[in-house]
Write a structure and sequence with these properties.
Blueprint: H1 4-10, H2 18-27, E1 33-36, E2 53-55, E3 62-65, H3 75-78, E4 82-84, H4 91-99, E5 107-110, H5 117-125, E6 130-134, H6 138-151, E7 156-159, E8 173-179, H7 200-217, E9 221-231, H8 240-247, E10 252-255, E11 266-269, E12 276-280, E13 290-297, H9 317-324, E14 333-338, E15 341-346, H10 350-359, E16 362-365, E17 367-373, E18 376-379, H11 381-385, E19 394-397, H12 400-407, E20 419-425, E21 428-435, E22 440-442
Parallel strand pairs: 5-6, 5-8, 6-7, 8-9, 19-20
Antiparallel strand pairs: 1-3, 1-4, 2-3, 7-16, 9-13, 10-13, 11-12, 12-13, 14-15, 15-17, 17-18, 20-21, 21-22
Amino acid sequence: MLPIALLKSLTNLPGYEQESFVRVHEQGEQVTSVRLNPFKKFDIQEHPFLKETTPVLWNQHGYYLQERPMFVLDPLWHAGAYYVQEASSMFIQYILEKLFPNPNEQIVLDLCAAPGGKSTLLASYFDKGLVVANETIKARNAILVENLTKWGSERVVVTQNDPAHFKALPHFFDLMVVDAPCSGSGLFRKDPSAISEWSEEAVLHCATRQSRIVEDSLDALKEGGYLIYSTCSYSFAENENKMDCIESIPGMKNITLDVPESWGVVTTESPVTASKGYRFYPDKIKGEGFFVAVFQKQVSENGGYYASDFNFNELTKKEKGTLAAQYAISEDQLLINHQNGIIAVPHDLIMPIKAVLKNLYVKKMGVAVGTLKGLDLIPAHALAMSWNSKLPYGKLALDLPTALQYLRRADLVLDGPKGWQGICYQNIMLGWAKLLPNRTNNYYPTEWRILKY
């Protein structure tokens, strides 16, 4: 049963109709949607549960499924060929198309990024820029690293910092996305257990925390840069009230979006500054509860970030020669030794990544290539997941049962050329294996293997 205090608090808010709102929650329909990775293409018509889908109106890569499948039994899910994401959250794509119709070299920050839905969306959209995905909590940061590694972009840095730490990079980002921690009422239909955790006190606690997150990090936004603020809450204190708080910050201006009325998205307005935001109700759209608003920094007191004196440990001439014998080194990449492995970093991102490394705690950057052992390259799993079309070694295609055995990290004996092989399913890379005369060494990451289903 929905909290009475919540229902009372929503009275008179734009778009709220209690009878239909309560009914859609009581019906308990589960809406499942996925967003395809545009850089890992496969034949949807050959896929068991993606061949019969309905498109998400505001995201050309998003699709509703007829029912929720066992994703763990789909190798393409493990390969990052798509991401299971709530449809309302995919509205960020529509906002990006309005703010950056021709994306190029923008530097963007996803401040509260785990588990990675919005970060993977940003990485796909800003495929010529840099995405910094931050998550403070260590366990959640590990999930973020996993999901972004599987997604495959080399133009991503994962950090683990408090929002206030981003003051060290003033005037750095063209876009900041703050999907703020919230009371979670927008996910009650998806997760009924969250109802018992909701309280008016929790709403106020979250609202205070949301203000701190925005205020502590806003110095990092460039003049002319945009802030996208969102929650999965219905509460006024976390949404309309926050719009007034953000608009009251010197230099910040609310941006209005032209949203098609047929989509069912409700435009709302804050009481003091008349800022516009957008509410998603499950009785009006096919998806869960969501709120989003956009602001632009009109004026900045800071003059910009400074060039970092952080130095990379580049590969020696001998190491480059050994690597080049097995891996086609791109002229667009700088290869460095970092944390006991070789990392490939795009040349055009060297300066901003150095600035991030100097000032923040970095958990992942670029693409891990692997390690050199004598004349042999032991390839990293991230290299198999990457969007790089020129990978070392050959490829070995598996059928579904064998692919699942590989993903369980089970013992396998595969037929094929001896030595390192890229393991594929439906032409999408799953990882690496080394074929020996009497056995196959399975190099799928132990911590990511299928345990049970």
